[in-house]
Design a protein that fits this description.
Strand content: 5-15%
Structural class: alpha/beta
Order of helices and strands: HHEEHEEHEHHEEHHHHEHEEEEHH
Oligomer: single chain
Number of helices: 13
CATH class: Alpha Beta
Shape: globular
Number of domains: 1
Length: 427
């Protein structure tokens, strides 16, 4: 049962007073304060952009976590390999359906080596043709584990051998000073990757993007009242931040905010995260890392259409980010990296889906990226317990990003200096 009835802007408040709503919200605010101890408000973020803007030319990393285990074989499709069709007779995409990854970046994609992008990834295909998309194949870690929880922990802490209490971005923060805003998570709860030993990344809750009558109602509850206790004043301020975040979304990106799907709330949608990220970058917020997330990749059944729809959300969001930054001096500074905790098994299951697997592709996008195929494509027949072999250790990808985007020593963050992959052009 909800704590409070839903707000209907077409009706009077009917006894639901500002004080009643704020008191009922105190419990929720207390929980949120524990979950997102590094939470910041929009005014803090915008104020830093005015006082301490990020210099143009400074590289920016946008991390996109695809939660659930993205099917790499349905994303970067090995259409030329007969073993692909044999393993997935009801799921396989045909050579005439995919968006080919051929040309000078990959060489002629013919015969068994022919590959293509899922047909939903039209925007990324455009970036491939422009030389701005890198596909790193066979990325995983040496300690195979099909658990969502353990696998995402490995990817986000960059510690496959033993659990640790810090994330790789958090450890980078520890080496670069005490400013949490150097990394900004779009959402209310920090992921493990953003937790350092001394410094936590900042978390910017999205809230909602109210308009019209909805905004009038929230304005009412956000207005300061001299009779408020300190706790009520803090909760009122959080409503104010929700209103200001909503207002910040509007000028960026009709394209991004218009991408909200019916099954995604404005508080969590990937489109809203993209819109706010673009707004922050254009304003010059002094964040070097942005953390975004898109869930729904756990495709155990009816995968073909559902996975394509999920990839379309990713594609629309990343295309909207590029479009929103078009013409901005910082557009060329942005490198996007999209990854998932594991890939899927090679063979389809009885429900026309795929189960938890191991390695999969990592995608990098941006003007600084060396477009093309990187790393070795895992064999579809030489498997490990039915799973793809890992041909690229994920820490090699992180090493390239740390060196070329964050200008950091990988050994200080990863505990090792992985062999470079050459994914990014030197600045």
């Amino acid at each position: 049962m909800p704590l409070l009835p839903p707000l209907d802007p077409r009706r009077p408040l009917d006894g639901l007073t500002r004080r009643t709503l704020l008191r009922a919200s105190c419990g929720v605010a207390a929980v949120g304060a524990l979950a997102g101890a590094a939470s910041v408000g929009w005014e803090q973020v915008a104020g830093r952009a005015r006082r301490d803007p990020l210099p143009a030319g400074t590289p920016i990393l946008v991390l996109v976590t695809m939660y659930g285990g993205n099917d790499g074989l349905g994303t970067v499709v090995p259409v030329g390999d007969p073993a692909y069709r044999d393993a997935r007779p009801g799921l396989a995409w045909g050579a005439d359906e995919v968006l080919p990854l051929d040309g000078p970046l990959a060489g002629p994609a013919t015969g068994r080596d022919a590959v293509g992008l899922n047909p939903s990834l039209t925007g990324l295909a455009d970036q491939w043709r422009a030389g701005r998309l890198a596909v790193v194949r066979g990325v995983g870690h040496p300690t195979l584990d099909r658990s969502h929880f353990r696998s995402i922990d490995v990817w986000q802490t960059a510690s496959p051998d033993e659990p640790v209490g810090t994330g790789w971005v958090g450890r980078w923060l520890d080496t670069t000073g005490d400013d949490p805003l150097r990394a900004l998570h779009l959402g209310s709860v920090l992921p493990p990757l953003a937790v350092g030993r001394r410094v936590l990344a900042a978390a910017l809750p999205l809230g909602t993007a109210p308009s019209g009558g909805d905004r009038t109602v929230l304005d009412h509850f956000a207005a300061p009242d001299p009779g408020d206790s300190p706790v009520l004043a803090q909760v009122a301020a959080s409503y104010g931040d929700a209103v200001r975040v909503g207002a910040a979304l509007e000028p960026v990106g009709d394209r991004a905010t218009g991408l909200l799907d019916a099954d995604q709330s404005a508080a969590t949608s990937f489109a809203a995260q993209v819109a706010l990220t673009a707004r922050c970058i254009r304003m010059g917020v002094p964040s070097r890392v942005y953390s975004l997330s898109l869930s729904g990749f756990d495709t155990h059944a009816d995968e073909r259409d559902g996975h394509a729809a999920q990839l379309a959300r990713l594609d629309r969001g990343l295309t909207a980010l590029r479009d929103a930054l078009d013409g901005d001096p910082r557009a060329g500074d942005v490198v996007v990296m999209a990854y998932s905790e594991f890939g899927r098994r090679v063979r389809a299951n009885a429900s026309q889906g795929t189960d938890h697997g191991t390695s999969g592709p990592v995608l990098l996008l941006g003007d600084r990226v060396r477009g093309g195929l990187h790393g070795e494509q895992p064999s579809l027949t030489d498997l490990v317990d039915g799973d793809l072999r890992t041909t690229t250790d994920f820490r090699r990808v992180y090493g390239d990003v740390l060196r070329s985007v964050l200008h950091a020593d990988p050994a200080q963050v990863l505990g090792q200096d992985p062999e470079p992959l050459g994914l990014l052009r030197p600045v």
